[in-house]
Specification:
Elements lengths: L7 H6 L12 E5 L3 E6 L2 E6 L12 H15 L7 E10 L2 E4 L4 E10 L7 H6 L5 H17 L4 H4 L4 H15 L10 H15 L2 H9 L3 E3 L9 E2 L5 E2 L7 H4 E3 H14 L3 H14 L5 H24 L6 H23 L1
Antiparallel strand pairs: 1-2, 2-3, 3-6, 4-5, 4-6, 7-10, 8-9
Helix pairs in contact: 4-11, 6-7, 6-12, 7-13, 10-11, 10-12, 12-13
Amino acid sequence: MTTNQLPPFIQALLHTTAYPHPAAEIKLVQTHISYVLLAGEFVYKIKKPVNFGFLDFTSLAQRQHFCGEELRLNQRLCPSLYLEVLPITEDGEGVRLDGTGTVIEYCLKMARMPEEEMMGAVIERGQLTKGHLDGIVERLVPFYQQAEGGAEIQAFGTAQAVAVNVLENFEQTQSFIGCPALSQGQFDAINAYAKGFLAQEALFESRIAAGRIRDGHGDLYSANICLSEPIFIYDCIEFNQRFRYCDVASDVAFLAMDLDYHGLNELSDYFIDTFSQRANDQGLRQMLNFYKCYRAYVRGKIGLFTANAPEVDAETKERCMKGAERYFALAEFYTRA
């Protein structure tokens, strides 16, 4: 994507003069729902005005609200990382962060993490260890123990409630069948497997009875973990409660799937074994493949959404399509495992 295709206010925020603090250069990173600006010691996250059904950021008021929710929820695990919600303003002198002009947008301000310690970078260097995973488990176990898990949240653990999330993915990807990433055979196999597992209602009820349905993270994988001191587990789902109110098994299966995706199967098994033991959750493995399959399919879907977004560049499109192809293949693998 060329700079000229970006919204004018994003183009303005690519200039260091828009910031009230030193920033030698500004780097823009995009996801399917956000613009992320890296500026000096800080990061500014701006929500795109999109509606995917499962999230709706189309109005300025909604984007302001969900910036606030993202701040509140992520301060559970990262109180020193998530700082404040700021307005983006415009006046005769141009676009400014937290300026005095008319408010045209809102952003979430975060402290910038060391890029070399991002989990994805550590994996890419082949340096991920069991010690890293021990540290992640030490952060997660008390988080889930303290997370809310009342009757309203427990209701999201039933087979019927989980089915809403799982089956929605198939509806939202049906139009992509036959693209390079997703074949009809894969779609049918994964769909049938998911529906077969969801029919085991007693299994889901046993997880509710064990107190394993919590207000969790919802997006727990390497892209949202920094292996610094302390370890940051950030960017939880703020835009839809039904993605965050889930079985703990669904959360940790996401990270285990992610490790499988990177060819780190032994570390994936170690992570699940360690978490299960320290959380005293021996029933987790009964749910593991189902939730791994679900999470892999979600990542494939997001890859397709991003690859087909009009504002992303050709390189991003190609990378996301190839990633989606690998995720759908992994989801199909779990149906046979």
